[in-house]
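During data preparation, we tokenized the protein backbone, and the record follows.
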Amino acid sequence: MKLNINLKKKIQRFCLVLICLVVLIFQSDSSNLKALTMDNYQGEMVIEELRLQVPANVKAAWLDAEKEIWEPWLSSQDGFLGRQLFWDKEKEEALILVNWKSKKLWKSIPIAEVNVVQQKFEASVKAALNVGENPFKLIYEGELNKQK
């Protein structure tokens, strides 16, 4: 009887270990293991993605400030290839896609310089709308890399 209980415990432990191994094996996705980190794309074109909350009643002010502040500054940056602005009426959300020649060139721009331009943008918007704070809240920022 005692031998039978010990045998059952050993079989249960063996089964548990076997289940864990099977789960571990099937969880490892070989394509993920071979994937390159984004740092390996330093020399390839990258798209900066920004999403902003842009209410319908201030959309025109957003577009004007983008054209007056960001567009000239971006055009002067090494590696800047162009950008596209989109606006979703239902979500009242803007999507900004900025094309860069390479991630290295994009990320070489000092953040302090970007912050100065952002402050000018916000000051322009606040003055145009006669408000105390920037009405355009950043929802998301990221990057898109061209796939081969």
About this structure: The CA atoms of residues 9 and 39 lie 49 Å apart. The longest strand covers residues 80-88. The chain is about 50% helix and 25% strand. Strands lie at 46-53, 80-88, 93-100, 137-145.
